[in-house]
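REQUEST FORM: STRUCTURE PREDICTION
Request ID: SP-0412
Submitted by: Lab K.M.
Chain count: 1
Length (residues): 84
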Amino acid sequence: MFSYGRLRSIFAFAFPLFLAILYTLIGFYYYQSHQTRQAEQVRQHWRDQAALMVSRVRSEYSTSLQVEKCLRSVVENVAKFEGI
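STATUS: Completed
RESULT:
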Protein backbone atom coordinates (compact mmCIF):
# COMPACT_ATOMS: atom_id res chain seq x y z
CA MET A 1 0.00 0.00 0.00
CA PHE A 2 0.95 3.57 -0.52
CA SER A 3 1.77 5.64 2.45
CA TYR A 4 0.43 9.13 2.84
CA GLY A 5 3.77 10.72 1.96
CA ARG A 6 4.20 8.61 -1.16
CA LEU A 7 0.64 9.35 -2.32
CA ARG A 8 1.24 13.03 -1.68
CA SER A 9 4.44 13.04 -3.72
CA ILE A 10 2.70 11.20 -6.61
CA PHE A 11 -0.08 13.78 -6.54
CA ALA A 12 2.47 16.62 -6.39
CA PHE A 13 4.18 15.19 -9.48
CA ALA A 14 1.04 14.26 -11.45
CA PHE A 15 -1.06 17.37 -10.85
CA PRO A 16 1.20 19.80 -12.80
CA LEU A 17 1.41 17.25 -15.63
CA PHE A 18 -2.37 16.99 -15.65
CA LEU A 19 -2.71 20.79 -15.76
CA ALA A 20 -0.12 21.04 -18.55
CA ILE A 21 -1.97 18.44 -20.63
CA LEU A 22 -5.28 20.15 -19.92
CA TYR A 23 -3.95 23.58 -20.92
CA THR A 24 -2.39 22.10 -24.04
CA LEU A 25 -5.67 20.48 -25.07
CA ILE A 26 -7.61 23.69 -24.43
CA GLY A 27 -5.07 25.71 -26.41
CA PHE A 28 -5.20 23.22 -29.27
CA TYR A 29 -9.01 23.35 -29.27
CA TYR A 30 -9.04 27.16 -29.42
CA TYR A 31 -6.37 27.17 -32.14
CA GLN A 32 -8.41 24.74 -34.26
CA SER A 33 -11.55 26.78 -33.65
CA HIS A 34 -9.75 29.96 -34.71
CA GLN A 35 -8.40 28.29 -37.86
CA THR A 36 -11.87 26.99 -38.74
CA ARG A 37 -13.43 30.43 -38.29
CA GLN A 38 -10.68 32.06 -40.32
CA ALA A 39 -11.09 29.55 -43.16
CA GLU A 40 -14.85 30.10 -43.15
CA GLN A 41 -14.33 33.86 -43.35
CA VAL A 42 -12.05 33.39 -46.36
CA ARG A 43 -14.61 31.12 -48.04
CA GLN A 44 -17.37 33.64 -47.33
CA HIS A 45 -15.24 36.43 -48.79
CA TRP A 46 -14.73 34.45 -52.00
CA ARG A 47 -18.46 33.61 -52.15
CA ASP A 48 -19.27 37.31 -51.84
CA GLN A 49 -16.72 38.17 -54.54
CA ALA A 50 -18.18 35.50 -56.84
CA ALA A 51 -21.73 36.74 -56.26
CA LEU A 52 -20.63 40.29 -57.00
CA MET A 53 -18.91 39.20 -60.20
CA VAL A 54 -21.94 37.18 -61.33
CA SER A 55 -24.30 40.08 -60.76
CA ARG A 56 -21.93 42.41 -62.60
CA VAL A 57 -21.66 40.04 -65.55
CA ARG A 58 -25.42 39.60 -65.66
CA SER A 59 -26.02 43.33 -65.66
CA GLU A 60 -23.28 44.25 -68.15
CA TYR A 61 -23.59 41.39 -70.58
CA SER A 62 -27.30 40.78 -70.83
CA THR A 63 -28.78 39.91 -74.22
CA SER A 64 -30.64 43.18 -74.58
CA LEU A 65 -27.50 45.16 -73.81
CA GLN A 66 -25.50 43.16 -76.36
CA VAL A 67 -28.19 43.74 -79.01
CA GLU A 68 -28.22 47.43 -78.15
CA LYS A 69 -24.42 47.66 -78.53
CA CYS A 70 -24.51 45.83 -81.88
CA LEU A 71 -27.31 48.03 -83.22
CA ARG A 72 -25.51 51.15 -82.02
CA SER A 73 -22.35 50.10 -83.89
CA VAL A 74 -24.45 49.38 -87.02
CA VAL A 75 -26.03 52.84 -86.76
CA GLU A 76 -22.58 54.43 -86.35
CA ASN A 77 -21.28 52.53 -89.39
CA VAL A 78 -24.32 53.57 -91.45
CA ALA A 79 -23.84 57.19 -90.32
CA LYS A 80 -20.18 57.03 -91.38
CA PHE A 81 -21.18 55.51 -94.72
CA GLU A 82 -23.78 58.21 -95.37
CA GLY A 83 -21.21 60.86 -94.52
CA ILE A 84 -18.90 59.68 -97.29
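NOTES: The chain has one domain: 4-83.
Reviewed by: T.R.
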